[in-house]
Amino acid sequence: MRKISLVCLTVAALWVAGCQKTDLTPQPAPTATLSADVATCTPDVISFDNVAAGTRPTSINSTGGVAVGVESQNPHYAFDREAIVFRSSPTVSSLEDTDLGSPNSAFGGVGIGFGGGPGPFQNTTALGNILVLHNFFSYDANVEPNDDDFNEFETPGTIGFNFSSPVTATSITVIDVEYAYNSEHEYGYVKLYASKGGAQLGGQYNFSDAGPNGVEVVSLGNTPGVRYIEVTIGGSMGLDNLRFCRPAPPTSHCTLTQGYWKNHDWPVQALTLGGTTYTRTQLLAVLNTPVRGNGLVALAYQLIAAKLNLANGSDGSVISADLAAADAMFVGKNMAASPLPSVPTAQTSTLSGRLDDYNNGVIGPGHCN
Prior knowledge:
Blueprint: H1 6-18, E1 42-46, E2 59-61, E3 67-73, E4 83-87, E5 129-133, E6 157-175, E7 187-193, E8 200-206, E9 215-234, E10 238-246, H2 258-261, E11 270-273, E12 276-279, H3 280-287, H4 295-311, H5 320-329, H6 349-359
Helix pairs in contact: 4-5, 4-6, 5-6
């Protein structure tokens, strides 16, 4: 919704008093705590505060360091990345969208509308950066983020979050969903899946009619086994604080193989090989590269896994000399290059075997069951 006038606010106040519709099913009261069935997980959240406003992300890191893919589709346009990060506080990214501000002006912020009043949708907390579907053809589209409008007769847009391993979906925060107000007929909902294109888990989690600038924490039912979260957006609104619970890391100091680390969360998001630091994305690219006679790739498989085991709390004293020797093999070699540097497997096979034995539990603290 755009630039609410005083007249509209007056009309809106009358609507709140006596004309509110109940077309959308209200959600359960928001809760900030996890239920007992997921208490053994590690709570985590995607807040969008770690990227700049104006970013159109294809992935985002949670506050706990989990990399999550971001996919978006806006039927109004045909761009590759259609979701954009919008600043809701301390100042808004676009003066067209002060109804996306947080907290509400009644609480000292930049928000407008009913979000500051009493009730379940009070806008009292600075949300920082949020995520919206971008209006590419707005007058300021090349200058500042700006959320797009839909009406009830148009195909809605979607934003998807793709996790590399299963999580328990907890809640998501939405702002400025207006169904009855001023006949906006905005709506939205969340569906959870075992994987992208896989089986749906649980039901459909509808957004309530929070009104202009209202904020709702939508419960996602503490649903386990989720790897894909799809948010349907039928209107001008923003998303924030996608909360989930990821499995707690093993409490024992056992070891895991490179095959495990290729498909599960890491205790760190970067490692050094030969004195050079590589990101998780770069290292996963190496782990997914076929060996094909390249001894450095074969050794990198085992060295990466061993270092992740150490970061996860495993005792590496039995391979301390092997680690130093393996690191020396990578000095001056760029494992992010294309093509990768190569040495014959005969030059690395002994070290690869030692580290493989450690990761598989033949030596050292033992392999995790």
